[in-house]
Design goal:
alpha/beta, 249 residues, globular, 22% strand, three-stranded antiparallel β-sheet
Amino acid sequence: MPGPPVAPAVSIRSVSKRFGAGPLVLDGIDLDIAPGEFVCLLGASGCGKSTLLNLIAGLDRPTSGTIDTPAEGSAVMFQESALMPWLSAKRNVELALRLRGVPRRERGELALALLDTVNLADASEKRPHELSGGMRQRVALARALAQDRPVLLMDEPFAALDAITRDLLHEELERVWKATGRTIVFVTHNVREAARLGQRVVLLSSRPGRVAGEWRIDTTGRRIESPEVAALSVEITEKLRKEIRRNAA
């Protein structure tokens, strides 16, 4: 017999958002995200993806509707690594551990373990200006993991990186996700990135943002150049173009 249904890690019910007296940014979003699921939020620039991520993070409140998340909260990773420039990679991770309340005697070893998780233990004593853009984002990922939250929210974290570095970080993120079991909500405007990473891709329409389409992806071991990624990208892109044309009409 199947077990009892598992409660979603994130439950979004009829969520709408407007800023002040302006137009609706999000309109009636309904979305459940299962524990351990990797969901990509996709859409054209300005469709409200980042706004929805901020609402899930608790950085803002919806105008209407409800969002239920784990009591432990969420960790957020942004496009910019936002590392403390005067601290080493290890110290940046230790800062998150200190804010979490981890005893001082334990922070160093745990910070090194987290940097090792993102394959960066060898650079633990380097400061941000000594690291490449991809390495800085790995430190930012280790810092987000240091918060030990069940949900990881990622707002276009690889958008500023070159294609090769981005592809390498896709592999790193997939490995970390499988190793940690985190629930990940990943915002991107890159269709291939969404098709490469997500177990599920959720397309938001242009403003006001509504759920315009969903794709569940069962295949594993995908790469950015995989035929299934290319085929899915074509399908999603066509739907996205229709949404953009509809909005412009």
